[in-house]
Amino acid sequence: MTETTSGRPPEYVLTIVCPDRPGIVFTVASFLVHNSGNILESQQFDDRLEDRFFMRVHFQVLDPAVTVERLRAAFAPVAQASAMEWQLWAADARYRTLILVSKEGHCLNDLLYRQSIGALPIEIPAVVSNHTALEHLATSYDIPFHHVPVTADTKPAAEAELLSLVESLRVDLVVLARYMQVLSDDLCRALGGRAINIHHSFLPSFKGAKPYQQAFDRGVKLVGATAHYVTADLDEGPIIEQDVTRVDHSLTARQLVAAGRDVECQVLSRAVRWHAETRVLRNGNRTVVFR
Ligand SMILES: Nc1nc2c(c(=O)[nH]1)N[C@@H](CN(C=O)c1ccc(C(=O)N[C@@H](CCC(=O)O)C(=O)O)cc1)CN2
Predict the structure, then answer these.
(1) Final residue of a domain: which of 90, 125, 144?
(2) Tag placement on the chain: N or C end, fewer CB within 10 Å?
């Protein structure tokens, strides 16, 4: 993950998930005060059903001697005492994001453009596709393109190549931007929590490869899109973001596809930005999103 400097006091984001108890906010705030921290933004949520507490704190450090390594070392015993799962990153760190795509290029195009104008805190070291149709799009942004074809026979080798790219390119996040191959259980385990998919329906409705045809056949009045973490269970992963748009009886299935494109792009880019800003915390098969 690439960290940048700007001359202003360095800013960090701390996220916490732990069993709920009184005094967690006090514990965190005290730690920050004792380490020259000044809170800029703080959000928390108490899941009383699961008895689990979630917190995200964006803060600056006023003493230049307090480095991120010193903060992490100092916070570790505090976290252990409260059984916290935690992350501490520079607020302007950029996630190294590998994009997977098949033939539909609208989500890839949207992510490449938003990244190029600085609207997404990510770097894109490469684009991978099981087809060659979208190579020109990656090339137009000077981003390396890898063609990894997938058939039933080549799938294990294709997935091994994909994982090798994830490791060699030091990838933090994999985005399935209309990648139409089902990832194996092993690959999902290897990518656990680091892969986001855009599904072109308002889940849990219309799972599978052809949701717009299913929507047309059902005669829906809304179509939508869902960004979720990828799990071995197809289209069942924890949902990060969803949205819909109104349609009506006059639209063909092909026109529903067209109506859904913009929704898919907006939902996926929001989910990627929130993940990259460490605003999304897992809560079992659900998420807490500090927008
Ligand atoms: N393990 C997972 N892999 C993938 C998921 C997921 O949730 N878990 N999401 C899909 C994306 N997707 C829907 O959003 C989807 C993609 C593909 C299919 C499908 O049935 N594919 C067929 C081949 C279709 C083709 O070649 O065009 C197949 O793999 O046999 C269903 C849903 C991405 N992967």
Answers:
(1) 90
(2) C
Tell whether ligand 1 has an atom less than 6 A from the beta carbon of residue 29: no
Boundary-marking domain end, from 90, 120, 138: 90
Beta bridge partners of 94: 2
**153 contacts 147 by C-beta, under 8 angstroms:** no
Is the ipTM above a cut-off of 0.85?
A: yes
pLDDT of residue 64: 87
Which residues form the domain of 34? 11-90
Q: How far apart are CA 169 and CA 163, in angstroms?
A: 10
| Mean pLDDT in order along the chain per 10 residues (291 residues) | 68 97 97 97 98 98 92 97 96 96 98 98 98 98 98 97 98 98 97 95 96 98 98 97 98 98 98 98 98 96
Note whether 160 and 187 are within 8 A (CB). no
Write out pLDDT tens, residues 234-287: 999 999 999 999 999 999 999 999 999 999 999 999 999 999 999 999 999 999
Q: Ligand 1 test: best mutation among 130, 189, 234, 242, most atoms within 8 Å of CB?
A: 234
- For the chain, the domain total comes to 2
Please name the residues in contact with 144: beta carbons below 8 A apart, sequence gap of 6 or more: 125, 126, 127, 138
Residue 35 belongs to a domain with what CATH number?
3.30.70.260
Choosing from 235, 243, 248, 262, which is the catalytic residue?
235
Kindly state whether residues 246 and 178 are assigned to the same domain.
Answer: yes
Q: Say which residues have a Cβ less than 8 Å from residue 59's Cβ, sequence separation at least 6.
A: 11, 12, 13, 14, 32, 37, 38, 39, 40
**116 falls within a domain:** yes
